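Give me the 3D structure for Glycosyltransferase.
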Amino acid sequence: MRGNDYRVLQPPEQFTPELRVSVVIPAYGAQDKLDLVLQGLARQTYPAALTEIIVVDNGTSPPLRLPGGTAARLVVCDKPGRACARNTGLAEATGDVIFWLDSDVVLTPGAIEAHMRWHHTAPYLSVTSYIRFTEAPLPGELPGDLEAAFEPAAPHAWLVDLVERTDGLTSNSPRPFSLHVGGATSVNAGLVQVAGPMDDDLIVGQDTEMGFRLYQAGAVFIPEPRARAYHLGPTMRMRQQKSIDRVSHAFVADRIPAYQWLRTHPTRGWQVPYVTAVIDGTAGYEAVRAGVDALLASTVADLTVVVVGPWDTLDPDRRAPLKDPDLDLVLVHGHYEHESRVRLATEEEVDPRVPFVFRLPAGWTPGEDSLAVLLDLARTEGLGLIEVALDEPAGPADAEVARLERVSSFARARLVARPGEPLDDAVAAVAGVQRVDGDQHAFTREPAQPVGRRSAYKARIAAKAEAARLAKESERLRAQVTKWRDEAARWRKSTVELRREVGTLRRELYTAQKTQRATRTTLAGSVRRAIGKRLRG
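Predicted structure for Glycosyltransferase (537 residues):
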């Protein structure tokens, strides 16, 4: 599967249900809606023996109750917040698949089965239902014909627009994880275990933030039109979207680096950086410093650097520091110990939420805009890995390389790689790999004195402006060429018409001359006859 193009999976129409599904329903109040939701679950076509239903009462007073005959069980979460309630239900869940369901969303009978046919096809999926929002009066009992009872209803406009704009999320969508909304979404339990539970420090936006972590863990996101559901009434977001977005954006910007449009400050740091660079700290003080300083001065400010070395073994010799065999390590440690964007680690430590990891061999210095250019290439082409060939002493196979790795692509590759298959080969299959030349991307062995990201940024902006100017000039010249071609066509047409007119005139002249000659001959004959007649008379 390339990117999020799940169309290659082709789940069977008929399958033998084997996986258990845990339906987790956080609930606060609205007992009447919860009763309808549970009635909808009782009608599901997926086997009840493989379905676990967990209702989490998030502090309702008086407490919620389960209607008679339901297969659900009730647990209590006193800590307020939907994320807390979901995590409580998650801790109780035993299924192979977790199905998040809101307590005001009624599933149509085949919804869970539509989800599970995907989960029986691959173990790294997140599937979302198509929800319609109804304002119909709540019935006392769930009717048999949900469409007749709840229509007309409005679609989930934002979700439908996202799906339509990206051809069902298959056309290299940059943020497919946005589809992970908690109203009626399922996800493989193994992926949840890797990604971790919902962030209960968030006020809103927990679904999307968890979706991002699932994406980083290798998940594929699928909108399933066969899985339909009715939301009983409008959501809080529909009623107060601007206010909710204001709160959500203030918090998720720190946690979701993929939302670069929320990170407009040119220099500040974030909880989760967009890129983490990794450098070997044992390669010598000057070599390490050259690479680290170049990265810190790059036009990519949303970046941290991990310098790996045996820092826990250092014991600086205070009496004879110049004779310390670990002097270079001591210098690196002392130079960056208090730099907030540099982390000195004894082992490689990269937050799994970081979208990109850049591995730079010590001793090499990237240009100030080199990393930005590589990131643009990775995003534009959807690449999982870019290798930068730095030095090839004995050919490409022996080259020293820098690597820009997309974390989500490597996570997916680990999930699908065949036994013994090189991980880079699996990355090539799921996202693509490209090799570029280090010289052409301003990588050198010479330590460069950073002049600041502003100068490189200005140079890049100037280059873009010049490119735009040249593109505009090219367009003008193309228009001029078209104009000239049209003019030449008119000239050719005029030439043909003139040739036709000349031909006509020539024929008319020939006719006139012929007529004139005939007239002259006739006149001369008449004159001769007249003169002869007079002479004879």
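The first strand starts at residue 21 and ends at 27. Let me know if you want a second pass.
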